[in-house]
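Notes on consecutive records. When two proteins share a document, each keeps its own sequence and its own token line. Never mix them. Below: protein one.
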Amino acid sequence: MTPPAQQPRTPGSGARGENRIPGDWYGKPYHSLDAWCKNTLRRKCYKVALNAHMTCPNRDGTKGTRGCIFCSGGGSGEFAVSTAGKSVARQLLEGEALLSGKAALSGDTPCIIAYFQAYTNTYAPVEFLEQIFSQTLSSPRVCGISIATRPDCLPEDVLALLSSLKERFPGKFVWVELGLQTIHEDTARFIRRGYGLECFEEAFRNLRCREIPVIVHSILGLPRESRAQMLATNAYLNRLRPFGVKLQLLHVLHGTDLADCYAKGEFEVLGKEEYLELAADCLERLSPEIVIHRVTGDGPKKLLIAPLWSADKKSVLNGLHRVLRQRGSIQGCADN
């Protein structure tokens, strides 16, 4: 199942200060994933992060051995359930058990989004991918899967598999998450992303022509980037009109090359108010049709070096709502 076509919303009227939150956003000043689930699936949904024990071309020597400069040893999968020696199926069962107290899980309605998060989740033989994705989609509690990957890891046989999964599981969704991070090639080289913007655009086109919804990751606060550059990436995303966007605050984590740069004083992380103002700027410029899957990010506390204020996620979310409320603005109010 792909997200249904949505009618463009008019987020209020007139200049900033006169914008009204649409009723189907459930009180949030942006079009959240939670709102999408409630409006489209008619239920609240919960994510279970999974580790399929893959690697990455930026780690196995194909394009590099140390990964992106900000990526931890866990390949951004630290929030998966305990994975040592466990299959994806076992991880999913344990993730469901951790959520067993949630009201939505008291019945038989599918309400779990299985999030293949760690490393590059299409970087494996297609037979293995077919096995783990099909097995996961077959779970009666799973409403769909979200696959985090790189745009340079979507060959034709993987694209064909994703299309076939859509056909075989018509009542469920298949999403792909692509890490763009920035449109600026100088920054991309510095963070060792390993592919150019053209590669991302080709992958995006290939997925879109197969009607596979794409969620794009963007990092705010990358070293050497100005506010204008970050907003330029955001403007690019708005023109692209993906299904979803994740706004990620740059975290400095132990064990990364970014941590070494930070220790040497080569850059500064964003302050809390600075980030909140920047995130609000981005949301104002993103179409209300785009689903916001994240507005801050979760740096694992045991690894987090900076910014330490980001560890209090509730405070960050409340702060963002406060900034938007003070401005009288909501997502899309400055969309051109």
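Protein two starts on the next line and is unrelated to protein one.
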Amino acid sequence: MLIKQVSIENKPELQDIQIVDGIITKISAHIQPNGDEQVIDATGKIVIPPFVDPHVHLDSTQTAGDPEWNESGTLFDGIRIWSERKKTLTYTDAKERAIKTLRLQAEHGLQFVRSHVDVTDPNLTALKALIEVREEVKPWMELQLVAFPQEGICSFPQGRELMEEAAKLGVDALGAIPHFEFTREYGVESLHFVFDLAQKYNLLIDAHTDEIDDPASRGLETMATLALETGLKQRVTASHTTAMGSYNDAYMYKLMRLLKMADLNFIANPLINMYLGGRFDTYPKRRGLTRVKELDAEGINVAFGEDDIKDPWYPMGNGNMMDALHMGLHATQIMGYSEIMNSYRFITYNGARSLQVEDHYGIEVGKPASFLILNADNFFNALNERAELLYSIHNGKVLVETTPAKTKTNF
């Protein structure tokens, strides 16, 4: 396959990309096609790496309104409603809903997804279903699974045992929810447990951390210290960290030094964080987001995730990372021209680093031919105009192609 005359990641010079056996073999200004090689003329269009959703919940996806709608819009009512929905969870139910959402995500250019799966279920029904899904979607989606203790590790009966069982079943990462544990002491204990377990089974860590507006929620400092002292560093991800938006600046100054030393990853979920955050405020009303701009300015890896797609925590969502990015840039005021132009990294490279898939990610000779071609000349215009995804190419195979719609005006 030969892709003709594209702008690779906003570069002004147009180049050709040649693909052989699913691998990028050459990138040059002009490449002659070989024999009957498939040629895609995408002159002037931008090419970027595939979208990454580093934080979604496929076990709860497509359940909004079942058994009831979350009319309060709070995190805690979402947990309560999901606890009821879990009682009717079946293997087939979980599998079918997950695949439906993954297909929707793929249509929007996603090729890498990390899903948290609730393991505060004695039968681990959803986890077993999603392990099977992970294998089935391999030809078109790289899926990671996180053992997520929705109702706590120390605060839930057999919480520790269920986490270890999930590790044995073959998850990719271990989660935690320290701010939801009964006490701060339980929260700290849960993190120590997860770090020990991750090292025992050689797993990544991705914990829901301080997903609350309470400035006294400071699980992140424990998590960052453990990431530093164990040497796990980049293998550790702190998701949400919304309490950071409420920390005072003196404490934040001290914490930032530790975060830089720990070199862990952060994931903000702008759609859900903006929706759930600040629910108990009158005015001034907080944004419910972590300090994305400040972390990014310090060189700390921050990615955006979609988090929830039509479930008890978020009634909307269509699997499009451009929506999460658009909301995130507005909410964090990352709106300079060059900032917007380069913002695709929040939903591409930064997410790939959190998933630790950088060895086979990116547009370089020798790497798998996995990338997107958008119907725009640069990413600023692609995001602003919601440009069509012309092609999603995965390991040299065209997964998705779009014929742009034609609009006729009569005035």
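For the record: The CA atoms of residues 376 and 382 lie 5 Å apart.
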